[in-house]
Fold NUDIX hydrolase.
Amino acid sequence: MGHDFEVKDSRTVYDGAIITLRVDDVEMPGGRVAEREVVEHFGAVAILARDDAGRVAMVRQYRHPLGHRLLELPAGLLDQADEEPLAAAKRELAEETDLAADSWHVLVDLALSPGFTDEALRLYLAEGLHHLDAAERIDEEADMSVEWVPLDDAVAQVFAGEIVNATSVAGILAAAAARDSTTGLRDVDAPWPDEPTALRNRRADDRGRRS
């Protein structure tokens, strides 16, 4: 059996709106205790919504850390108490693209940067699309626009460096591979062992102490 990497001590050094930074003292093989910084994250969902013509609904959204707009798949945080991932995906698809879908499958699960954060994302394939009334949008989302991109064109844009959002790259390439494969996709209730819970549990505890 491998080493257990026991946490000897843990402390919070920053607690923000969408992330918390904690420092764990972890026992390494050989007995040395080393500090490991961990960014706790709510986790997220994303949606590759594909219409009957094979086009993918994408959004062009301003991303402040990069200082410009990116072409991305619709996505959002799992930051609402007790909201299941599929319900969050349906909500985000409606809020960002004014779409609903009749068919849902798990496309891929992603651990986005496991060297320092527990942030993970479940990416769904949504089909059987129909339009909803326009949602009200604020802040960056008020500037958001929806673009319909044929899947093969989206793949070409990935390789051209024009689509760089990691979630979108993974989703587009996975959808193209799934389309040409006999491997079936998982049902929406498939286990998600890496779904982040630390930050959501922390926020729930905070709410409990305030009530």
About this structure: The two ends are 44 Å apart (CA to CA). The beta strands are 7-15, 19-27, 33-41, 44-49, 55-63, 68-72, 75-77, 99-111, 120-131, 145-150. The chain is about 25% helix and 40% strand. Helices lie at 85-97, 151-159, 166-179, 198-210.
